[in-house]
Structures are given as structure tokens and as C-alpha cells.
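Dear colleagues,

As part of the handover before I leave the project, I'm documenting each prediction I ran so the next person doesn't have to rerun anything. This entry is a single chain, and its sequence is reproduced below.
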Amino acid sequence: MKPINVGLLGIGTVGGGTFTVLKRNAEEITRRAGRPILITRVADKNLELAGKVTGGACQLTDDAFAVVNDPEIDIVVELIGGYGIARELVLRAIDNGKHVVTANKALLATHGNEIFAAAQKKGVMVAFEAAVAGGIPIIKALREGLTANRIEWIAGIINGTTNFILSEMRDKGLPFATVLKEAQRLGYAEADPTFDVEGIDAAHKLTIMSAIAFGNSMSFDKAHIEGISKLEAADIKYAEQLGYRIKLLGITKRTSEGVELRVHPTLIPAKRLIANVEGAMNAVLVKGDAVGPTLYYGKGAGAEPTASSIIADLVDVTRMHTADPEHRVPHLAFQPDAMVDLPILPLSEVITSYYLRLRVEDKPGVLADITRILADQQISIDAMIQREPDEGEEQTDIIMLTHKTREKNVDAAITRIEALAVVKGKLTRLRLEELL
């Protein structure tokens, strides 16, 4: 049978891994897809590198538009990244009637609504398993494996860089800045780590999963995004003492008032499986009404893990290449005319539990003043640690865990607590999820 011709845009780490795995497992992939899948053209600015990786096995160019405009190309694999030229290339490929496979979570989270509408109009597929959690097939699980379920919530460790940093901070008791430098030295963190450590990368991935889970439009601009750069080693230590671990979680929940879409450091009970995901690994916990909680774990980045997902998409597109567009799996799980615009809840309306740490003068009545303010805001305390002050010190830490309450109630309580003369500096507030 006639091979499927693939045009590869970008042959860096992931592109090179894709080329290598596709070549190495060609026979098995052909048996699964029903026809050979061949990378016949590669576009990359570094033609010398492209030549070394491909070994002269395909046409090379430094003009990506030459690939998306080539009538012989059936599928375009976009691995350039970013929002600008990648968007132009993907839309041009779609307009030319080509299917697209991409690992570009930033592009889909910000321009996905436009891209999927264009693909629907032209009757082509846009596949993006590699855009979320690398080699973990979470998109297929959400879109197909769990299709019988009403998805209730998703909570994911979906950024390996931040998980590595948090693991090191917990194991070694080191501050964030020190561990970040080590992560950069080892290659886990970029020279500019902002997208990772400030939660932006995780929010891109969460936006995509949320849209698939709830049939909602992409709403990245409405997500609450909070990273780990301000997290202190002391809070990781106190969380451990209380039986919790801190992870940067992407959380999306369906509530009667709308959809929660938030990324932030989160306390999780240490006995939960996801709390024990360490190093640069990823894990996604999905709760469906029929199946209950399900956990997906694996490598969230790297050349071959990501290539695994890209090639799985190539096989899917090849299988469905000649199928009637009406009978393909919808891009976002729900039929295009059944998508909805559910409101994204502002953080002030989110209901969860909280970890509060404050520095206070060691005087009688301090705790009573604080608990009175919490009671005024209908906030009840679940657990508490009050440290004995170090010898010669007149200040100490109070750490409290609350029962569930609304974020705006906590905001109001913090404002009043910080105004007390006996409270020194800013109160630290982290959110807590039981994930049951």
C-alpha cells in the first residue's frame, strides 16, 4: 500500500527522537498502521544537524513553508514550538488539506479554538498527544478511554522541572534558588526557567485537558497561574510534619458554578500515590463518575518518550486517513456542535482547604485573636502546629490547616490577621487537596 508521507518541522531533541524511533520500529509501526509511515521532508534552520540526524534519508530544507506547501506531504509534524510562526505553519498546512501532528501545548492552549475550527472546516485531523505529559497517553485516555464517564476533576503533576525541584527541596532541605541552579546544571531547567517555575507550562497543558474533559473552549487566559519560585523550604518541612507533600498541581474541576482552572503549589496527603511521584516524572489523576480515580504515570519529556506519543498520533491519523471526517474521534472529545462555554470560576470563588503559616510574638492570647478572626469568616481549623520559640527568641511560627472554605473568606481573614500588631510579616497561604 502507498506510504504516508510525513513532513517534519524541526529536528531538535524531539524531532530527532521521532525520526530515530520511527526508523527503528518501522516494521512494527507499519503492521499497526496498515501502511508505511515515512518522513520524506525535514525543515530545520540547522541543515548540518538535520543531515547528521537523517543520514541523507530524506529531503532537507531551511524553509518550513516549502514543506507545508508540498503536495506530496500527507501529514505535517510541527515541533518548532512557540505561538508565532508555528501558528502560521499549522494553519497553512490545514488550509492545504494536510493533517497535523503537534507537540506544541502553548500553541493549542492559546490558539486551539481557531486551529480546531479550521481543521473541522477542511475535514482534516489535528493530533496532539505529545502536547501534554510527554509519553503518557493522557489525551487518548480522556478522549476515548473514559468517554463513558462524566469527568469530575483532573489533578496533574505535568511539569517535570518543578517536580524535580520540589523533590530536591524536600529531600535535601535546600532553598528554591539553590535547587534551581542544580536543575539548570543537570539540564532539567532552561537557562530562562520562567515558563516552568512560574506554572505557565503546566497551565498550557491543563487548559487542553480541561477542554477535553468538560467539552469547553480553550480558556488559558482565564486560568489562575502560580509557580513555585516563592515557596520556602520551611513550608515543605512543616507540610511533612503534618503528613502532606507539596507538589505543583494543575487542577481543573467541574462545579455547579462553573469550571475551576488553576495551577499552584498544593499540599497532598503523603499516602496518595500522586504525592510520591518524584524527580522529573509526571502523573495525572483523573476522577470519573463511573470509573472513580485513575492515575497515569510516566516520563513527561525527553526525546523518545515524546516521540512515542507523536508516532502514536501518526499511526492514528494514518488509520483514519481515508475515513469520513464525521466518523473520526472529535478533536476535543465532544462533537463540535456540542461544545459549550462553561464559565471559568475566579479564584475568589474556589472552595478548598488551606495551609496557613504565620510568624507571631510569643505572647498569651495571640492564638485566641487569630482563631476569632478565622471563626468570623466561617473558617474552621483541622490541624495546628505551634512551635516553641528558639532559645532567646520572642517570636514563633504557627501553622494551621483549615477545613474547606471559599478563597475569598481566606483572603478577608488574612487581611485582618496581618493587621494584628503581634503578627510579623506576611502570612504564607497554600492550598490543600485531599484528591479523593
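The longest strand covers residues 244-255. DSSP finds 15 helices and 17 strands in the chain.

All the best with the project,
I.
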